[in-house]
Amino acid sequence: KNQNDLLKNNQTNNNNDNNIIIEQKNKINNILNNLTEDNYNNILNESFKLIGNKSNEVNSTFNYNNFEILLNNQFTFVEVIVEKSIKENNYTLVSEEGFSNYICSLDWDALSIFLKECGVQKLTVVVYLRRQDEFIASSWKQSVKVGATNLSFEDYVHSRNVDELLHYYSVINKLDEGLNINHQIIVRPFDKNKFFGGSIFCDFCNTIGIDWDERFLTPNSIVNESLSFDAANAMLDIYCFLPIQNHYREIIGLKALELSNKYPDKDIMPFTSEGNKRFLKKYERENECLSKMYFNNQPFFTNKQFRWQTYQKDNKRIKEYKMTFLSMIPIKERIKNV
Q1: CA within 13 Å, CB half, 245
Q2: What is the pLDDT of residues 108-123, one digit of tens each?
Q3: How high is the pLDDT of residue 62?
Q4: Percent of the chain scored above 90 by pLDDT?
C-alpha cells in the first residue's frame, strides 16, 4: 500500500513538473512569436545588459518580465529555439563550445527522441579535436583565466573528468552508438596547418558543404585571448586569498591578459619533455584509430616543436606578476578571505 501511495505521489509530481514545463514553453513561445529579424539582436543585447547591470530599466520593445522568463528558463529557452528553428527551416546549425564539457554524460536517447519529434531527418555532427597536450594546457589556462579552478597544472592533468574527455576515439564511439537517429559524424583536427583555406571559418564551411566567399566576415582580432603560462601560475598563487566567487578574480584576470599580451609564450608547453611523451603515450593507440577511421590513415595530429617549462617558485616574472596582482586587492579583502 505504501509503495502504491508513493507511486501515485510520484505520478502527481511528474504531472505537475510537466505542466510547469509546458507553461514555461508557452510563455517563451509567446515572446519568440513577437521576434523579427530587426528586434532579435535587440533582445539578446538587452539580455546581456540585464545580466551585467541587474537593472530593471530597459529601453526596448520587450519588457523586463520577458527577459526574466528567458533567463530563468534558459534550458527550456534553448529547447524552444532549436525546435522552432528545425520546424521552420530546411537546415539548422547548433554550435556550442560547452558541448565538450558534458558529451560524456549526455542522455543521447532523450536527445534523439527530441530531435525526431522536431522532425529531424538527418543529423550531421562536426567535431574538432585538438592534440591532447595542447587541449589540456589550453583548458587549464582558460579555467584559471575565468577563476574556475584552484588546481595547479599538474593536478589538473590528473583530474579524472578531464582524462575521460581526452580519450577521443572512445568518446566519439559513445556518441555514435548513443545517437538513435540517422546521423553522420565528421571529425576534423583543430590545427591551423590542416585547416581548409588556412582558417577555421573556411574549414568549417567547407566541412558542411558551404562555399566560402567574400560575403562572409571574419573577426579582425583574437576572439578568446590566452593567458601566458607565467600569468596563469601567478594568478593561482593569488587565488589562495580569494574564494571562487569573487569579483577581484575577474579584475586580476583582465590584468593578466594585458601582461600575457606583453610577454606571450605560445610556444611553451607546461610539461617536461619526458613528461609530455608519457602523457601522449596514453592516447597514442586511440589517435591511430582516429587516423584510420576519419583521416585516411594519415597522422591526425602534427608533431610541433615546443619549449618545455614547468612551474618554478623562483621564476622572476611570476614573482613580479604576483606583486602586481596583490596590489590590486585591498588589504581588508585579503584578510577576510585568508
Answers
A1: 0
A2: 888 888 888 888 888 9
A3: 42
A4: 26
DSSP 298: S
Length of the chain: 338
The three grid cell numbers given for residue 265, joined into one nine-digit string: 609564450
Task: Tell me what pLDDT residue 110 has.
Answer: 83
- Do the Cβ atoms of 270 and 309 come closer than 8 Å? yes
Location of C-alpha cell 577576510:
336
CA distance 46 to 61: 10
DSSP state of 197: G
Strands (E), the chain: 123-129, 183-189, 268-269, 307-308
DSSP SS3 for 269: strand
Q: Is 149 helix (H, G, I), strand (E, B) or coil?
A: coil
SS3 80: helix
pTM over 0.85: no
DSSP string for residues in 116-175? HHHT-S-EEEEEEE--HHHHHHHHHHHHHHTT-----HHHHHT-HHHHHHH-HHHHHHHH
To 10 degrees, the CA torsion angle through 330, 334, 336, 337? 130
What residue type is 207 in one-letter code?
Answer: T
The identity of residue 11, as a single letter, is Q
For residue 31, give the C-alpha cell: 515572446
CA distance from start to end of the chain: 55
Alpha-carbon span 80 to 117, nearest angstrom:
12
